[in-house]
Design a protein that fits this description.
five-stranded mixed beta sheet, about 375 residues, Rossmann fold, globular, binds iron/sulfur cluster, Fumarate Reductase Iron-sulfur Protein, Chain B, domain 2, four-stranded parallel beta sheet, 3 domains, 9 strands, 20 helices, alpha/beta
Length: about 375
């Protein structure tokens, strides 16, 4: 947790110029200064100074923030809004317990065994077609068991792969595709069984994730690059392992071995969605385009409005459903206007949020690495 004095110093770096306001999705929707980055920073400063109470109204404005950090990217004074938001949430957490949904999610993600059981449970529910009764139930692909090591034939390097809670249950295909692509390029892949949740949901709730951090530090000890497929988890892991962690697409664009790869052409329109975690935190949104452009005949274009968050934002889609839906609607309109065959996104949370409805039934929502792997011969 950030010390109160440090937090106050960081809020003091905001000169209230307002240049971040046009980039803030919640300000855009409510037109309320209190739902803008500048407003939230000044409110937090006032709470820290004791000028206003830490009450429900303050918490409501902080709760509505997506922590997309689009404001941070726009700020000419480099105010670290993410640090302020995390500190504010930890401060709020001393006054209010986490919601039941958050508590359940955190218990689940901290236990690999429980997660596995949930994955099999979801798969069973899908097989029984229970999503007709429970509409928000995600489609669950087959559950996989991971080996500790996937050796490349002629190794040119070694990497570790971070599985992630949601990805391991709901996006095992992209994880398997990542192993396939890395092996084909000559990279041996290690999957430490002691790795755990990235702690992103804990951070979002204002809780400490130091126990999870410690476990991941131990699981990924050594100098090997650590790769992740979900940019939401990646943003947290980059903070934890700044010298080692890389988004999978960013690593692959710089990797060697592509000269020997033959792709099956794909005559299709691929629209790229840029998750906020990939744009504003990992700052590697261009790598998905570079990868996808390797596919012959593919028409790879950017989704208009990529600078605005889709509303998924970790547990936000569950805790702030009204705003999450408004922001999702903006994305749906843009996807429908561009009419792609594929919508490529590098974050499982965004994928689930965008797919949560009937509007995009005709569009395949995939991770860029899964698409590229398929054109290299990978089958799930
Ligand atoms: S956060 Fe940055 S851009 Fe926004 S008002 Fe403060 S100084 Fe200006
Ligand atoms: S993190 Fe996103 S939602 Fe929160 S104040 Fe910044 S731009 Fe607005």
């Amino acid at each position: 947790m950030v010390a109160t004095l440090d937090l106050l110093t960081e809020t003091g770096r905001c000169v209230a110029c307002g240049l971040c306001l046009p980039y803030c999705p919640t300000y855009h929707k409510t037109q309320s200064e209190a739902d803008s980055p500048r407003g939230r920073i000044l409110l937090t400063q006032a709470v820290l100074q004791g000028a206003i109470p830490l009450n429900e109204r303050y918490m409501a404005h902080m709760d509505l923030c997506l922590t997309c950090r689009a404001c941070e990217r726009a700020c000419p004074n480099h105010v670290e809004y993410g640090v302020i938001a995390d500190g504010a949430r930890a401060m709020i957490r001393t006054q209010r317990s986490a919601s039941l949904a958050h508590k359940l999610a955190m218990i689940l993600v901290a236990s690999p065994k429980l997660l596995k059981v949930t994955g099999f449970g979801l798969r069973l529910a899908n097989l029984l077609q229970l999503q007709k009764i429970i509409p928000r139930l995600p489609a669950t692909p087959k559950q996989r068991r991971w080996e500790a090591i996937y050796p490349a034939n002629k190794p040119r390097g070694e990497v570790s792969l971070f599985l992630g809670c949601a990805s391991s249950v709901l996006d095992g295909d992209t994880l398997a595709a990542s192993v396939y692509v890395l092996n084909r390029l000559g990279y041996t892949v290690h999957i430490p069984s002691t790795q755990t949740c990235c702690g992103g949901l804990h951070q979002q709730a204002g809780d400490s994730a130091s126990d999870l951090d410690q476990r991941n530090q131990l699981a990924f000890a050594g100098n090997m690059p650590v790769l992740g497929i979900a940019s939401g988890c990646g943003a947290r892991l980059l903070d934890l392992m700044p010298d080692k962690f890389q988004d999978i697409s960013a690593f692959l664009t710089k990797a060697e071995g592509w000269d020997d790869i033959v792709f099956t052409p794909l005559k299709a329109k691929i629209v790229v969605h840029e998750p906020c975690s990939l744009r504003n935190m990992l700052k590697s949104e261009t790598s998905a385009y570079s990868l996808l452009k390797l596919i012959p005949q593919a028409d790879v274009v950017s989704l208009p409005g990529n600078a605005q968050c889709c509303g998924g934002a970790g547990a936000y889609m569950l805790t702030q459903p009204a705003m999450a839906q408004k922001l999702r609607n903006d994305k749906i309109i843009q996807v429908q206007k561009t009419a792609p065959n594929y919508l490529a996104t590098s974050n499982i949370g965004c994928n689930l949020h965008l797919a949560d409805g009937d509007e995009l039934k005709q569009v395949k929502i995939v991770h860029p690495v899964l698409l590229i792997a398929q054109q290299m011969g990978f089958t799930a």
